[in-house]
Amino acid sequence: MNLGAKNLWIFDVDNTLVRDVEHPIPFDDALRLWNHLLKIGKVVAVLTNVGRLSARQIHNVVVEARYDLQLERTFSAGAAAAAYVQNRSPGARCFVISEGGATEDFVTRGLNVVNNPPVDYVAVGADRGMTFAELNFATKMVKEGAGLICISGSRDYPGIYHGQEDVFIGERSIAAAIEDATGAECVVVGKPLPEILTETVKTLGFAIEDSVMIGDNPQSDIAGGKAAGMATILVQRDDNIIEFDAGDMDQTPDVIVKQLDDIIEML
Ligand SMILES: [Mg+2]
Is residue 185 in some structural domain? Predict the structure, then answer.
């Protein structure tokens, strides 16, 4: 594979560029590759499964970690979910469970975010302040026919909330409660859904064959990138790998490295 010929380089964020968005300590090997790519004229972007923060907030985190990134090249799971709904039902009435980030992404993309019926879509993101009333209302709306979207698919994830380090129940587990109560099935919008990657590449104005997906997670970054037809690079970090459901998707990366700056000599 001729990586040097590829022009669009899409990076995962958590455990690829920084430890995670709540501990935004950059990895030096990632910074070196990023800066080298910019120096030789490549386009860099990020696509994260984090839905707790909006694309704008993710952009702030990545820039503060010293990565030179443009806001319009920053894609969050919330933004991907909003695009997914907007493409099917422009201006749909959406009830969004989130910590604010996904709600902002939905509003930014022109969706009608509501707290009252009627509701076309219930979108469930990770929300550590979610109330029973919100969960119950979401369930009722799905029972009445609203579509159920899960903004990314983590069952749990490590983080820090109100100053407390912990592992938290993820959006997929909240959506599972609604599925159980209603018999409905959610659509998980986030990596590894290949549509998310193809839409991101298209939005950035590139062809799939010209694009690379780089991440730490075979189940999300690699499975999604492969299914979309992109070149895939796995960086093997020691821990912090979040579990996603990739079913029987191919999770074999084209290239595996321990340090992302090992890529520089392949260009
Ligand atoms: Mg990651």
Answer: yes
